[in-house]
Amino acid sequence: MTISEWADAKRRLSSEASAEPGPWRTDRAAYQRGIMDAVSDAAVETVVVMSSAQVGKTEALLNTVGFHIDQDPAPIMVVMPTERDAETWSKDRFSPMARDTACLKGLISDPKSRDGSNKILHKKFPGGHLTIVGANAPSGLASRPIRILLCDEVDRYPASAGAEGDPVNLARKRTVTFWNRKIVLVSTPTIRGTSRIEAAYEESDKRRYWVPCPDCGEHQLLVWPQVRWDRDNTGAHSPETARYECIHCHSAWSDARRWAAIRRGEWRAEAPFAGIAGFHLNEIHSSWVKLAEMVRTFLSAKDHGDEAMKTFVNTSLGETWTESGEAPDWQRLYDRRENWTNGSVPEGALFLTAGADVQKDRVEIDVWAWGRNLESWLVDHIVIDGGPEHAETWAALERVLGQTWTHASGAALKIARLAIDSGYESSAVYTWARRMGVGQVSPIKGVEGFNRSSPVSGPTLVDATEGGKKIRRGARLWTVAVSTFKSETYRFLRLERPTDEELAEGIRYPAGTVHLPSWAESEWCKQFVAEQLVTVKNRRGFTKLEWQKLRERNEALDCRVYARAAAWIVGADRWSEAKWRDLEAQIGPSKTVQPEETQAGQIRRTVRRPRRIIKFSGMH
Questions:
Q1: pLDDT tens track for 246-295
Q2: Is 5 exposed, middle or buried (0-12, 13-18, 19+ CB in 10 A)?
Q3: Calpha distance 5→322 (Å, rounded)
Q4: 292 vs 229, 288, 337, 510, CA distance in Å?
Q5: Which of 150, 341, 417, 606 has its CA 20 to 30 A from that of 472?
Q6: Can you list the domains of the chain with their CATH numbers?
Q7: Helix count (H) and strand count (E) of the chain?
Q8: DSSP secondary structure of 510-531
Q9: Helices 306-315 and 291-303 sit at what angle, rounded to 10 degrees?
Q10: Phi/psi of residue 21, each to 5°?
């Protein structure tokens, strides 16, 4: 039997895991047949599926597991992005299938049995076992030989499984002793040049699904530009009129006609086959998604900016997103600086974070204020002269932690979290961070690559050295995907701003707007946009994205990334509405400051503020 034949004959969909419980029917989503049967093909060693959401790829993995438990027992490993995802997949997806598919009932013992053969993440059956692990757990990936390796959502895997390296390669090594091994990689893609699934698909024979037109019979790929819809008399979009237009005869396909045509489709390879079968699908193929829903999602993404459109491209079109890494013009940033009282925190800001960059002869600190929707204001720039070998340097940095900044409401704000780079003199950074405590200071380590779902991971315990003596569990280190926050910063800097007239009418700044003060010097602005994202080729000829400097100094950009990581660590990306309201209540309403005459007839004027430098005698 092939896997699709087994599923049609024996698999039952469970009510809690499927909108259509009952016997499995491959014809319900005919494109799945080619994917499942490629796993059954003796000539295929690796199967790659790069697709949108809602096309049934997880069910195809479940069918592969069920088939091998019943028909071809072997050691099987399923790798999910995290251990929590692994537990969820085991409880919510696999267990219902094992319970409701009759042929599997007698092969896997009852979960309540005491023989230990049916645990959440490890299940035994005659002739093999099923191990379910998270890609963030290196011990699970390296534990035992595996013949059938199934990796789901590989683009959500961390860059490294602990200190062991790439989790996909680590898992692949478990299969080397089996001549008849099978490796299946499945994922929605992420960013072009960094996507694991895109790189794997490029090495495959690149199969795509061709569908015949119900009217002219010509085969074609289903692509987004051929989805059409109308507008009403006022020019408003009418998603309910969505249909697919044949690229050859221009006939309109309703959802029902589209689904019927897809059942008659076929897979065609675009590259020579060399043991790797690759499949690409978008949501237009899905038997569970109506075009009107896709159009509404697309229109909403257009209204909500690049981040929402990236989600649409990844999860609906199954394509990688191309990051725009061109550096914004520093002169434009300089020209649109704003005036607010020196040393104060403007209205709208609700908490402070800081990023500290440790250099050979100084420590640079930028203090950023944050409001709702990641709107931010630069409120201070401090340079401490002196290298990390001087105790005075750390004493000065400690004083910065104790400093307060006055909010427009009159409230005094302290730094909620300072993220300090540990790349230079890490032992000194760990020692100081340990002394300051975990509540306000977070040492961080930047890593290359993008991770939208979790750009900050950790903390992990690292050793510190104090007086030449190693201290176990000395500090808690956070790992930051710096590319993610650099791209986000550049995207925020490109946002169009409302005019003065629109602001007077109550129009708000867009989410993520970055406000710079009039005292930010031209040198600081140049440092803020000192890098750009470029595409480079590696030795194997595959492209990747890499941040490269346009000028030597880039401390302002680095400090921004660290301060943004600090905002993530305190939880600003995940706070509830109640939390934001609580912060607003604590700070209180802003005081109105009139620039008219004050005591003794003096006029208050905004004075441009240079960077503040803390110097210590005897230090060079």
A1: 999 999 999 999 999 999 999 999 999 999 999 999 999 998 899 999 99
A2: middle
A3: 39
A4: 9, 12, 43, 28
A5: 417
A6: 3-212+265-289 (3.40.50.300), 337-521+556-579 (3.30.420)
A7: 20, 29
A8: PTT-EE-BTT--HHHHHHHT-E
A9: 150
A10: -65, 155
